[in-house]
Amino acid sequence: MDDILNKKPGRKLAERIAKDAGVKLHECYQCGKCSAGCPMAHAMDIMPRQLVHYMKLGKMDEVLESKTIWLCATCHTCVDRCPHSINIPGLMEQSRMEAKKQGSIAVKEVDKFTDIFLGNVKTFGKSQEVILEGIYNLTTGNFTQDMNNTPHMLKHKIIRPEVNVVNDRAKVKEIMAKSLKRGEDR
């Protein structure tokens, strides 16, 4: 019965992703608390509970082609609500990295934002919101997307026009390179 319900190739991938995320898929008993509390559930095509279920069944094509893995805000509300503290954001992140490796990017804007954010951190040692926002808006063609909010953000020092860098940018680059290398090795 197990082999009829489960897709073997997908099961191996699901097991690897779960292991990398530090998750034991069998601990999820599908109570649904993760999905009920998720602030992004309204935009997801697979609820967090379903994602874990699909992984248990080895239905990794559905997981990797979903918008859900790209829309997860990694807020950890699901983990906080889960009776077993299952790291669903970890599953989402590992699935997102695997999907990107396979060339399956369901929400291109999120992938673009992530790449710009990481480039920003590599360059300056931390995120420069003004630069992040500017590059993202230019590359997506949404030139004036945040213009209405800019005066308020400047006034309340949420964003600042000056660029701030960390003292040891080389160390940040080294840490990021090690992390990226570790991700590629998996």
Helix share of residues?
A: 55-70%
The percent range for strand residues is under 5%
Topology as a string of helices (H) and strands (E): HHHHHHHHHHHH
Shape: globular
Rg from C-alpha positions?
19 Å
Question: Structural class of the secondary structure composition?
Answer: mainly alpha
Total beta-strand segments: 0
Mean pLDDT value: 89
Largest sheet, if any? none
The residue ranges in which pLDDT falls below 50 over 5 or more consecutive positions are none
Question: Ends: how far apart?
Answer: 30 Å
DSSP helical segment count: 12
Structure overview:
It is built from 12 helices and no strands. By secondary structure, the protein is mostly helical. The longest helix is centred in the middle third of the chain and has 17 residues. It is globular, with a radius of gyration of 19 Å.
At a glance:
The protein has 186 residues and is mostly helical.
List the helices and strands and how they pair.
Layout: H1 2-5, H2 8-21, H3 33-37, H4 48-57, H5 60-64, H6 68-71, H7 77-81, H8 88-101, H9 108-124, H10 129-140, H11 150-155, H12 169-185
Helix pairs in contact: 2-8, 9-10, 9-12
List descriptors:
mainly alpha; globular; single chain; 186 residues
